[in-house]
Automatic annotation (TrEMBL):
This is Uncharacterized protein. Keywords: Membrane, Transmembrane, Transmembrane helix. It comes from the Bacteria. The chain crosses the membrane at residues 12-32, 44-64, 84-105, 135-156, 163-181, 187-206, 218-241, 385-405, 412-434.
């Protein structure tokens, strides 16, 4: 068998380099002017964002070794444990999908006929108007998040995974995706699960072929390719769904604008002033209209953008440009607020605020609409931590996240099943998407399910 060895330290360095790519990409895309020109970012905002990542990489490369990153034999998982937790967590997630479907369709009365793009708009408007949410929705989301940990456990120990466990995992994943697609969009959640699973698969490969701190990268066998093939097929489906959501949302947005324009509404006049009447040919280029009004709402200077026909034909790329680059600018708006009221963690951990509100009878939620400048937009992971805790605590947390991720990666590459080893793919996803948005509100319940997997499973002796 051919061999080409690289050190595990180099693999870890490649992980760090991969985490840096999105930051560079977002920074570069902000200066792309084909679809418009973003307002400039303040020096203070850039300094905080770069300082946060410097603090993270400082923690990642610090010579600190946590106990969970040491020793393979004490943390090896039996085959039965892998299948037990994969099946158990998959079933929990399927129950969660059922609970959330019941919550949206029956309790909140949306039924099954409301398009997801329209439903999302209704939900966002309800949240901004003060809707707290129900305990049923909170429990359902907690249960649904178990599917991410189920995939990580399965991918980390793919050799131990049985066919019944894989079948149940796939069926449960289908149920979760169906609920997400029907009621919540779920683009980021589905993409996060896939990305975490891909990273866990890398951990499985390194732990399986690694010997004496070296990895033979040519020692690929069918057992290593199988999870990648399944995840790639799932990625194709998610990508197709994401494109469909973008296009349907654009068509609906253009239709709404046409109605506002026909009614001579102030909202339509505002967009016309920002974009220019000659560029809003609603009947000819509805997708271009949708993009242009969306960009105008973000304050993007559209004078450098191409003509409406060109924007319509590259609508998907134009929208992706906005989605990837809006977070830095929206954080800058917040960073410029002189007397910002920080949320003490209740911005990203809003579910805790809901629980506290129920227990105390007082509204403990952080009023996003009142305190932040643009409700419902992305503000990056560092920006979200800034809203929660301020500059100093956000930087300290960056160091701690770096330390924990490094320890988890080392433990994962050693073939261990520790808390940090299973949580490492989640931390990886949270950090790599950080320059765009924060996935902490979606993924923090995974820490609970990860901790649950550390409970020893007793089996009868033969």
């Amino acid at each position: 068998m051919p061999a080409f060895y690289i050190s595990c330290r180099l693999v870890i360095a490649l992980v760090a380099g991969t985490l840096l790519v999105p930051l560079v990409l977002v920074g570069g895309l902000r200066y792309l002017t084909a679809y418009g020109t973003w307002p400039s970012i303040s020096v203070g905002a850039w300094a905080f964002l770069l300082g946060w990542y410097l603090a993270f990489f400082l923690g990642f490369f610090l010579p600190v070794r946590l106990r969970s990153a040491t020793g393979r034999t004490a943390v090896d998982r039996k085959r039965s444990d892998t299948n037990f937790w994969t099946i158990g967590l998959s079933c929990v997630a399927a129950v969660g999908a059922g609970v959330m479907t019941y919550n949206f369709a029956i309790v909140r009365g949306f039924g099954f006929d409301v398009p997801v793009t329209e439903l999302r708009s209704i939900v966002i408007e309800a949240a901004s108007a003060g809707y707290v949410g129900s305990w049923l929705g909170g429990v359902g989301r907690l249960f649904v998040s178990a599917i991410a940990v189920a995939w990580i456990v399965a991918c980390l120990k793919w050799k131990d995974l049985s066919w019944p466990a894989l079948t149940i995992l796939l069926v449960s994943t289908t149920a979760v995706f169906a609920y997400q697609a029907k009621f919540e969009g779920g683009r980021f959640f589905s993409s996060a699960i896939l990305l975490a699973s891909f990273f866990a698969t890398v951990g499985f490969f390194v732990s399986d072929v690694g010997r004496e701190q070296r990895v033979n990268i040519l020692a690929v066998r069918p057992i290593h390719v199988a999870p990648v093939a399944i995840l790639l097929l799932m990625s194709v489906g998610v990508a197709a769904y994401n494109e469909m959501v973008f296009v349907s949302r654009g068509a609906r947005s253009a239709q709404t604008f046409a109605q506002l324009k026909a009614a001579d509404a102030p909202a339509a006049k505002k967009v016309e002033e920002a974009v220019g009447l000659e560029r809003l040919a609603v009947d000819q280029n509805p997708l271009a209209v949708a993009y242009l009004q969306y960009a105008a709402n973000f304050g993007i200077d559209l004078s450098s953008a191409r003509d409406s026909h060109a924007i319509a034909t590259s609508y998907g790329r134009a929208m992706a440009w906005i989605y990837l680059t809006q977070g830095v600018g929206e954080f800058d708006r917040i960073f410029r607020i002189e007397s910002l009221r920080h949320s003490a963690g209740l911005y990203q951990f809003s579910q805790i605020a809901q629980v506290l509100s129920k227990l105390t009878g007082k509204d403990m939620r952080y009023d996003v609409a009142e305190n932040l400048s643009n409700y419902g937009t992305y503000i990056t992971l560092p920006g979200s931590l800034y809203v929660d805790f301020g500059t100093v605590v956000a930087l300290v947390l960056a160091v701690l996240v770096g330390i924990c991720l490094r320890a988890g990666v080392e433990s994962m590459f050693a073939g261990a099943s520790t808390f940090l080893a299973i949580l490492a793919p989640i931390l990886f996803v949270v950090v790599i998407t950080g320059p765009v948005t924060t996935l902490v509100p979606n993924l923090w319940p995974c820490a609970f399910w990860t901790a649950l997997t550390q409970i020893p499973i007793r089996t009868k002796s033969p």
